[in-house]
Every structure is written in C-alpha cells, then in structure tokens.
Amino acid sequence: MNLEHLNELKKLLSSPKKIAIIPHKNPDGDAIGSTLALWHYLVNTGHTASIVAPNDYPKFLKWMPGSDQILNFEKENSQSKSCINNADIIFTLDFNHLGRVGQMSEILESAKATFVMVDHHQEPSDYAKIMYSDVKMSSTCEMVYVLINQLGDENSITPEMANCIYTGIMTDTGSFKFAATTSNTHRVIADLMDKGAEGTEIHHRIYDTNSPSRLHLLGCALKNMVILEDYSTAYITLSQDELDTYNYQKGDTEGFVNYGLTLDGIKFAVIFIENKEEGIFKISFRSVGEFSVNDFARKHFHGGGHTNAAGGKSDDNKEETIAYFTSLLPLYKNQLQS
Fold first, then answer.
1. For residues 111 and 101, is the Cβ–Cβ distance under 8 A?
2. For residue range 15-47, what is the model confidence (pLDDT) as tens digits?
3. Which of 75, 98, 299, 316 has its CA 20 to 30 A from that of 8?
4. In this predicted structure, what is the pLDDT of residue 338?
C-alpha cells in the first residue's frame, strides 16, 4: 500500500469503527482466510467487525477460527444488509470489481461507508477510496499479513490469525508450487509457523477430508478430459446431471482444472462446469509459462484473474461453448506451442 493510503487507513482505524468485511461470491481459501484474519485483527484492536459473504463456501474451510461468525447474505439477508448499511468502513478482499459479489453488488454500490480494497488480481476498478492492489503477491492473505505489518502491528498476529493466513497462501499457491510463490512468501510462511500456524494440520483439513462422492466425481471429470495436443491444451467438462449423480457439494470441483497441467506437454488447462440454476457454464482457466489466461478470459468469456489462473463464464449450452472455445485455439497456436 502506498504511503498516502496507508496513512489514511491508519487515521481511519485510530478510533473504534463499525466495519464490514466482504469476500467475493463463491469464496475460496484465500477469500475466507484473508477476511477471517482481518476480522480477528480488527476485533482484537477494538473495532466492531462483521464478515458478510455473498453465499456459502466449502465445508473444508469451515474449521477455520471464527468461521462460525461469517454471515451468509443469501440466508441471513436482513442482518447482512444491516451490517453493510451501518458500516463506517467496508473492506473488500480478494476481488477488485463489485460485479464479483453477485446479488450483493447493489447494496454495496449504495453504501455510504469508506471502501478499502485489498486484492492481488489484475485491472482493479476504482470503487475504493483506499486501495492496496499488488498483482505480484501470491495471495490476498499474504497482503493482509503485509498490511498488518505496515500498520505496525506485526506482533499482534495470533495463532488463530496465523492459521487463517497460512490457509489462504497455501491454497492460492497450489501448496506453494505456482509461479507467484516468492522467497518472501516462504519467509511469511515461516513467520506464521513461528506465530502458531499448524501447517501439517491445515493441509490435512483442506486436502485430506474428501467424501467418496467427491473422488467419484473426480473420476468422472478425468474420464471426460479431452486432450488437444496440437494446441498443448486439455479441457474437462462436467454437466449438471453428472454433478447431481455424484452428490456435488460446494467446493467439490476445487482443483480439478489443475489435473490437465500435470500432463506432459500441456500448457493450457480448462474446466467447464454447468450450473443450470444460473443458466451458465462456469469456466476455470489455468496455464503455465507466459500464456495469459487472464487476457483470454477477459477477451472471450466475460472473466479475468491472473496471468496463469483465471475464471469466466458462458451463457451458451455445452456444445456451443466447447465449439466456440476450440474455434479460438488456432488464434493462440503460436503462443501455446512456443
């Protein structure tokens, strides 16, 4: 965060405030970890803070300290609206455009609070008065760690906060294997462990608590994988019927897209997941090297994200969506084969 915005935030937080903390819709480990860590910090420093999530999040994240305090906007609508409308400050974490909060966008757009954005995605919009945007950071959780240090409170990180921050960094870096993982990321992790983060236990809770139905769904996804060697690309499709057959629960497809990149010679991996309720195919894009899935998603699928990890959507049916996607690949052949 630049010095001007940091000083403005210090001034804002110099007296007790009512604060709402907002993650993006379908929050992941980084979104939940960062909002919970910030919530603990703000409460511990004398503020009244609430987390309002646009919707539910995966069961494998609900062990995190403080998660039982998170309000679900869909299920606790009046209480959620009250928190937002009465807030002096609204922190938005792990997203940079109000379109990422779904049906909450309208109430946030009309809120009178001072907005503070903390996010590491590309091309932020300008809704926040105070911005901390850094696309080189591994995760929003790493940014929350840095922000707490910049506020002069590095010694205030409790074991509960350390566990939350560690979780978000671990999940957003693919257990520290993605290119955004820097030497400083590992220094942060080391300090979090010194402050009480339980790395082995966190990994177990995130990755080793699968249901049989999730593993069967993974088997279905891998069976559906299509490999396009000419374009160094692999894609997976999952229909609503397949999700229903394997008793899909929120978060069950987390990480499925990455299996394509484990194939020798594959640089671009995609998963198309049908959501009949919303009438869309939700799409996740992953890449290795310099091929920008952020640019690809923004240009063709109403999405965006990072250079090597992005999301998007299609309003067309499966056949039309796949046909459009494959029709685009010749345009990128040289990039994908370089």
1. no
2. 999 999 999 999 999 999 999 999 999 999 999
3. 98
4. 78
pLDDT 10s digits, 207-241: 999 999 999 999 999 999 999 999 999 999 999 99
Starting at the edge strand found earlier in the chain, the sheet holding 309-314 runs 226-228, 233-238, 268-275, 280-287, 309-314, 304-305
Residues 123, 299: Cα–Cα separation, whole Å: 13
The residue type found at 78 is: S
Residue of 101, 184, 95, 92 whose CA lies nearest to 138: 184
Is this structure's pTM higher than 0.90? yes
- Rounded to a whole number of angstroms, the distance between the first and last alpha carbons of the chain is 36
> Is-contact 158 196, C-beta < 8 A?
yes
The enclosing H or E element of 292 equals none
**Interacting residues of 194 by C-beta distance below 8 A, sequence separation 6+:** none
Burial 139-164 (b: 16+ CB within 10 A, else e): bbbbbbbbbbebbeeeeebeebbbbb
CA distances from 27 to 159, 321, 327 (A): 22, 25, 31
The answer to whether the beta carbons of residues 213 and 247 sit under 8 Å apart is yes
What tokens appear for 318 in the block?
């499966």
- Alpha carbon distances (Å) from 315 to 54, 297, 301: 21, 14, 9
Helix (H, G, I), strand (E, B) or coil at 112: coil
Q: Output the six-digit token pair for 260.
A: 């394509």
The tokens describing 67, both together, are: 């998660």
Tallying the residues shown for the chain, one arrives at 338
What are the Cα distances from residue 97, in Å, to 33, 50, 104, 118, 139? 19, 20, 12, 11, 17
